[in-house]
Known about the structure:
Elements: H1 4-22, H2 28-40, E1 46-50, H3 56-63, E2 67-72, H4 75-83, E3 88-90, E4 103-109, H5 120-130, E5 131-142, E6 147-152, E7 155-163, H6 167-176, E8 179-188, E9 192-200
Parallel strand pairs: 1-2, 1-4, 2-3, 4-5
Antiparallel strand pairs: 5-9, 6-7, 8-9
Helix pairs in contact: 1-4, 5-6
Amino acid sequence: MDDPVSRTTASYDRIAPVFAERTSDPDDGFLAFRRRFADAVPVGGAVADLGCGPGRDAAWLLERELLVTGVDRSIEMARLAATRGVPTVLGDLRRPPFAPGSLSGLWSVAALLHVPAAETEPTLRAWSTLLRPGGVLGLSTSAGDGEGWEPISYDAELTRWFVHRDPDTLLATLETAGFEVLEHGLSTTHRTWLSVLARRCKV
């Protein structure tokens, strides 16, 4: 089988401009969740947007006077983010390129859903180490069960690897990885989303 992450990255390189257009107008519930995350991070705090895509959220967070760096494996997505003025690095969200304890916030939306299920806990532990004690995580990912290849509705030649995580299991894994969950909720668009605000435990 192809490496799921590499093949998914290649698909995003192909669809980047169309993806940016199709995801430019999030719903009110998501906007409120994003605002609560931003309000929980100190003004001027360093934030990483892991799986930043075309930079929609990172650009908004920059406007909130946060020091944002976008991280994405897709070079085409990173280029789009850069056109929005987002400082962007190519990197793997499973092993983000930041020093331990260097961040006040981590934001990751519709990105963990491409990380194979077996790598969930190591990825979340890596995220926890990057945050200072009390640092904030804003996470939104697909809720459900199972993982596998899914076709792209607007480009039938391409597929992406999706992982749909059981909410209770993911919340427990966050706690195991060193996070205190502050709030969580489910919402439905074309799929069901689990959105979580959490902070790195201080001890």
